[in-house]
Design goal:
Chain lengths: 116, 108
């Protein structure tokens, strides 16, 4: 089971970025997928999840209306579209498989830096 | 939001010693919906325990979880050198899922 994120980088405040996560080693559509971020100040913060096949999504209040999670079950990919980025969105972003509420495994993480 | 408070913040110990880490919830964690993770520098967190006391696949038996209600404990029976890391608890009882701030187990 492996998750590999990509798409992080440096972006200016107000800008956009799309993170991708490639999944392998399991039946992708059987699982909810989530994004979690980590900062030195706020620690680990769950951001969003998407259901396996129905497309149901939910978001943390801190990103609701700015971030959008989506998935492509045919290609075993999950995405996080991040718009209106702020300095406080600077973090390492992890793609994770949600298993009945806990998270396993985690991707290696991708760093997003929001700075002018 | 259900807040998890971990203590101590830092736990200085030596290899071979027993580590006892605490996670206290601001509200009852129903059905023992609590997990523990280990994170080493430069790595992603790794699942250790789910359901408060069930070890994840491949996790050594020296790791054990216990507790219920609002008080949970992660115990490492005899520390190995590779166990020096940061440990986080996470609840999935009430959305949104939340994490504790972590306990760092460091070399004394």
């Amino acid at each position: 089971v492996q998750l590999v994120e990509s798409g992080g980088g440096l972006v200016k405040p107000g800008g956009s970025l799309r993170l991708s996560c490639a999944a392998s080693g399991f039946t992708f559509s059987d699982y909810y997928m989530s994004w979690i971020r980590q900062t030195p100040g706020k620690g680990l913060e769950w951001l969003s999840y998407i259901s396996g096949t129905t497309g149901y999504t939910t978001y943390a209040e801190s990103v609701k209306g700015r971030f959008t999670i989506s998935r492509d079950n045919g290609r075993n990919l999950v995405y996080l579209q991040m718009n209106s980025l702020r300095a406080e969105d600077t973090a390492v972003y992890y793609c994770v498989r949600r298993v009945l509420g806990w998270f396993d495994p985690w991707g290696q993480g991708t760093l997003v830096t929001v700075s002018s | 939001e259900l807040v998890l408070t971990q203590s101590p913040g830092t736990l200085p110990l030596s290899p071979g010693e027993r580590a006892t880490l605490s996670c206290r919830a601001s509200q009852t964690v129903s059905s023992n919906y609590l997990a523990w993770y280990q994170q080493k520098p430069g790595q992603a967190p790794r699942l250790l325990i789910y359901g408060a006391s069930s070890r994840a696949t491949g996790i050594p038996v020296r790791f054990s979880g216990s507790g219920s209600g609002t008080d949970f404990t992660l115990t490492i029976s005899r520390l190995e050198p590779e166990d020096f890391a940061v440990y986080y608890c996470q609840q999935y009882s009430r959305p949104p899922a939340t994490f504790g701030q972590g306990t760092k187990v460091e070399f004394k």
